[in-house]
User: Fold these one by one.
Assistant:
Number 1:
Amino acid sequence: MHTASLSISTSDTQKMERRRKVIVSSFIGTVLEWYDFYIYGTAATIVFGALFFPNLDPTSGMLASFAAYGIGFFLKPVGGVILSRFGDTIGRKKVMVVSLVTMGLATGSVGLLPTYNEIGVWAPILLVFLRLVQSIGAGAEYGGALTMIAEFSGKQKRGFLASLPALGVSLGILLGTGMFAALSTMQQEAFMAWGWRIPFLIGFTLAAVGLYMRLQAQETPAFEQLKQADRILRSPFTHVLKHEWRRLVIAAGARSAEAVGAQLFNVFAIAYCTKTLGMAPSVGLTGVMAANFIGLLVIPIGGLLSDRFGRKQVFLPSLIFLAAFAFPFFWLLDTKQPMLVLVAFVLAYGFGVKMIFATSGAYLTELFDVRTRSTGVTFARTISDPIAGMTPLIATALYAWSGAYWSVALFLIGFVGLAFACVAIGPETRTVEMADFADDSAGAVAAKRRR
């Protein structure tokens, strides 16, 4: 296959400044995305069952809350495909602005919702509706952030720079966890009446700051050169399915372990600690906070290691560790010792999942060429979101069925094995040029038609 390369010419100073703005705006966007998803997941565990599904028993109420939480993940692939298509046809930046505004408005509006006792069945309906709107916006957020940063990065530092959006994920979860940890010290009556709304209302502020920064960012050089060369595809999604489906399968499979692991450790594990083991909510929340704090150190190290040794050389050992720690994670939780619980969260999520997360950023963007990168990366990430979003519900059901944690641990190991197989058969991508594209017949035909 012949490969054509698009040259990118800007001064070093201008390029560094443009890259800085892209990194900052992408970082804030991922903070908002995961702040929202985490506060929603936490609220589903400790608040929504009582306030929005009060007619159900506690277990059924929690399952209903998890279902409302998980259903939003089913729209992420839809929103991702729709928005990322425009990222590959009209520009990365414009789509990122739309994504941020949609997420921010939906997040803040949850904090304004009346409860079931105030408006009856309309309360859970509106809750689910806002969850779906937020999911549509979030569908293209992280994939778009990775695409923009990767296209501003050179080969030598791409692994490190493409890991930075993952820092936004950790910070977003830290903010959400810290907020609920602080609010958990309130009187229970006040917390259930209005305290739980505060984290959601803060979403308005995060969106406003992120929007300001995102409007300052510029389009990526790779996309600008692609546009000038008149090589933009009319249907990048169709092109991915037809010409890059193998890489799509590899990317989606590689991402699945991190997606399932994140929801298992961040959402289900807290419910397991509180509902099953009878520990105070602060124990699990502290574990998640500690894991994400450690993740702030692990993520850039993982990115740097992938630049030094290669993406697969970091990705595969991280997957092995996560699989090996699936059962010890629950052993440590079952001790009910706060310090050992903290160690369990730190090792499983703060190290295992975060190392995978750090490496996957560059790996996924390097699997697709410049014409389809936004679509390919976003769809590969969001295609596993439905199973990830339902992970707390599935894990709860598995535990109820088996009466023990072994079924949940095997569920995680299954997805880690899938990811391992996909990365193992996939290519090493560290030397890929971000502005390269495959000069295939479909691309040539599309270009000729536009002329």
Number 2:
Amino acid sequence: MQDASERLHYMDHLRALAMLAGVAFHAMLAYSPLMHPIFPTADRQMSPAVDGVAWALHLVRMPLFFLVAGFFAAWVIARRGGAALARQRVRRILLPFLVAWPLVWLSLSAGVVWAAENVQHPSPLLAMVRQWLAMPDAPDAPLGTAHLWFLYYLLLFALLHWVARTLEAGRWLDALLLRSPLWILLGLPLLLVPALASVTAPHPAPESVLPQFWALVYYGAFFALGTGVHARADWLQTLRPFVPWLALACGVAYVAFLWGMKQRDAAAAYASASWPLAALEACLGVWGTLLCLWAGQRLLDRPSAVMRYLAQSAYWTYLLHLPLLFAIQYLLMDRDWAWPLKFVVGLGATLGLCLLTYQVFVRHTPLRRFVG
């Protein structure tokens, strides 16, 4: 078991990198041909190269986030006990979610309305919203959790984790991790394929206020694996002989995934994923996440002031970044700049404002206990 008093540098740093990847991913979607019909900030300029990078981030970053979250949940229990974890979940997840959800939803909705009325070169989604707003009985936007769905599912997994611990279900995972890593490397993707085959590819964000079964299965598997990795601190070392093959397999699978996405017709883009595409997503999610975790332990398990600061500010950045990013990208949509410049400006301004507000409003204030 991981020493509860040990500083988990590589986990902190992976969390920071996953946060940065999330902001970059959302900034990229404005220039993604795949997302152009449905993304509010979709720009006139697009590039297939964006899809080539964006979906690699998408397939790994949220599984990695949930694995790290499961690891830290087990770490808190080992260090402070189950009651302390429950108190932390209320203070660090439930309260921020309840406060941030209406603010994020109102800001995103207001931004869409403003952009629909003022942007001269609207995205297809904004053009549709503009038509809705012109109707005498304009429909209300469907309620969702936006990017805060991550917190919503963490709350659900906290409850499921308590149930699993009460039933001592963790012993099955412990026994599995004592076997060859191939049981996880091959068995976990097989377990996840049906869940991914029930939704579109790439798998969407489960923003509905009703829990999505596929998301509970898919992300819950990574959360559970994170708790198991904490119990078996040496398990990552058993992956070492497989790392070159995993890297090669991920490269081949990702090329096949992009090719499969390109071969779909327009109707298939909004239907459930085919079984081959779902299988590729499952393999990439599991193998890519474990590669990131293994590389993080090998390369990032040392103190770094910059990475620690980014890790400390990651929660605040996560909460704040999407409304800020959308507002900035709405202002950029009518500019005749090249898309790489728009991307850099949008990403840089968003991260800069997030870090500035963290420094001013969070780092040295009582808010640090909740979102620092």
